[in-house]
Amino acid sequence: MQIRAAVLHAPNTPFEIETLTLEAPRAGEVLIKLEACGVCHSDWHVATGDTRHPLPCVCGHEGAGVVEAVGYDVLGIAPGDHVILSWAPDCGHCYYCEHGQPNLCETFTGPLWAGTMLDGTPRLRRADGSPVYHYCGTAAFAEYTVVPAQSCVVIRPDAPLEVAALVGCAVATGVGAVLYTAGVRPGQSAAIYGCGGVGLSAVQGAKLSGAGTIIAVDSSGERLALARELGATHTAQAGETALETIRAVTGGRGADHVFEAVGQPRVQEAALEAVRPGGVLTLVGLSPMGSGTNLPGAVIVRQEKTIKGSYYGSVHARRDFPHFIDLYMAGKLPLDRLVTHHYTLDQINEACAAMLGGSGARGIIHF
User: Fold this and answer.
1) If you count Cβ atoms within 10 Å of the first and of the last residue's Cβ in the chain, which end, N or C, has fewer?
2) Which helix (DSSP H) or strand (DSSP E) does residue 364 occupy?
3) How close are the terminal C-alpha atoms of the chain, in Å?
4) Cis check: omega of the bond before 56, within 30 degrees of 0
5) What is the DSSP letter of 91?
6) What are the phi and psi torsion angles at 175 (to 5°)?
7) Residues involved in catalysis
8) Distance (Å, rounded) from C-alpha 356 to C-alpha 367?
9) pLDDT digits over 279-302, tens only?
10) How far apart are CA 306 and CA 74, in angstroms?
11) What domains can be seen in the chain, in order of their start residue?
12) pLDDT tens, 62-120?
């Protein structure tokens, strides 16, 4: 079938809207008609070359839509189902899946980084027959996509798909980091560096967990105001005064939990300073490949600070995506407040520019 998609041909070039050929789903695959896709910094890392990936490719990994068709040997998914795409699919039988860490599933790692399906081939081609690769195995900056069945999480049909799309990345990553990776307990303090879609989701996760003090840190006054609406008890402008604010509201000690949702080494280093002795720093933001962070070993040892990495919020997608949707529908997780901008596919470059400019929380591409 012929579809329109945003194609990235080389780092530091704009996305180009092209008509591509999308092959039918093969065994174990599903054809999805996309309804909405969030614009995330992880896609931009591919566009800048900070994340190395085969090109040309179709980015987009925070998507939701409706099943159009399924390939042979697909169980539990049928045409008409509403689904969220998971960019970290799990096989259910590898070492990590069997040890309670499906977000680290090793079965899909090779094919996803190669930009292909499990059989090593892509389903997208240009008019001349040359291949176009799938970022994260989802390729959601497109009208339709073919994905592994394990990348589809079926959800209730009454949930708005533009909200459901955010669960596939920002919400899972931010809320999951608080609830599952860090395990914030009621009454504890939490500071969140970076209030984009992931950081604001972490704010919501902290409120959901019962954190007593929630401090949001960002350079955007607009985002800080939204953080207060979503549960932050205090806010601080990014910079030297942020540390002073965090310590001032935590008895001079620093926060029990600090979350870095920017992915910049200098912010990670600043975030460690905001952790109290015996506290936990959880790194959530995706840093450029090859970058390094200077964290002082003597401080970490003497103050017993713990540093954790959080990949996809340590979620179990098939368990947690429907749960997050249920919380939203019950009014306990106001995920719709994260959607601040709306775009068409033709406005993909405009959407990226707005994201980089710090405008709003999350932009959504509608198909």
Assistant:
1) N
2) strand 362-366
3) 16
4) yes
5) -
6) -65, -45
7) 40, 42, 45, 61, 169
8) 22
9) 999 999 988 888 888 899 999 999
10) 42
11) 2-168+314-366 (3.90.180.10), 174-311 (3.40.50.720)
12) 999 999 999 999 999 999 999 999 999 999 999 999 999 999 999 999 999 999 999 99
